[in-house]
Amino acid sequence: METNIFISEKVKLAALLEEDLEKIPAWYNDTEFAHLFDALPAAPKTKSQLDKWYESFSDSNSQYLFAIKTVNTNEFIGYIEVSDILWNHRVGWLAIAIGEKNQRGNGYGYESLKQALNFAFYELNLHRVQLTVFSYNKPAIALYKKLGFQQEGIYREFIHRNGETHDMLLFGLLKREWESRTENNEK
Ligand SMILES: CC(C)(COP(=O)(O)OP(=O)(O)OC[C@H]1O[C@@H](n2cnc3c(N)ncnc32)[C@H](O)[C@@H]1OP(=O)(O)O)[C@@H](O)C(=O)NCCC(=O)NCCS
User: Fold this and answer.
1) What is the dotted CATH code of the domain comprising 11-186?
2) Of 153, 147, 154, whose CA–CA distance to 174 is shortest?
3) Which terminus of the chain is less hemmed in, N or C, by CB atoms within 10 Å?
4) Is 39 touching ligand 1 by the criterion CB < 6 Å?
5) Has this prediction a pTM greater than 0.90?
């Protein structure tokens, strides 16, 4: 029987519902989260900003949004975007946030990114997926390396925060690299 790529042991990727949006402002009100996830100034997200972001996915074929929900309790804990797809080059960007702080470190990020990569490479047939991460975000860097992403570049001194300067790193993963891992039962 065919495997459902949107569900694994602990988490599932599902549609992000309007009611889920209500949880997101609290995540952005935490400057630590905002500084890990976003290069924009940490600032509260207004309802109209969130609505615009949400609606941008509704009639676009160049970006996809998934809610990350726990299998056991159906709790909305974060989201994944596959965005800015360039179909002629078969390239897309990936972003992940486990917004619920107390749900980090449970393996949800790893499982849900595997699902998103299976979606990107086997459903969208992308050739390459890329993302950027700030040099101080050690958990995210370890996660991407664990999934086989390679560091390909450094945007030197890109981030200025709390009086300090930090690099932003570019990571990429090719379909054939993902295939060679999934052939070895990593799927
Ligand atoms: C980064 C993030 C997605 C990781 O998700 P998670 O569910 O907490 O991570 P997991 O429990 O699935 O851990 C998977 C791997 O990530 C790495 N990792 C996770 N937490 C870590 C930590 N505190 N320190 C070091 N490595 C960590 C490890 O490699 C881990 O594998 P291991 O358990 O075999 O060591 C999550 O912490 C998050 O959303 N943080 C806030 C937003 C953010 O930083 N987004 C990414 C922006 S680039």
Assistant:
1) 3.40.630.30
2) 147
3) N
4) no
5) yes
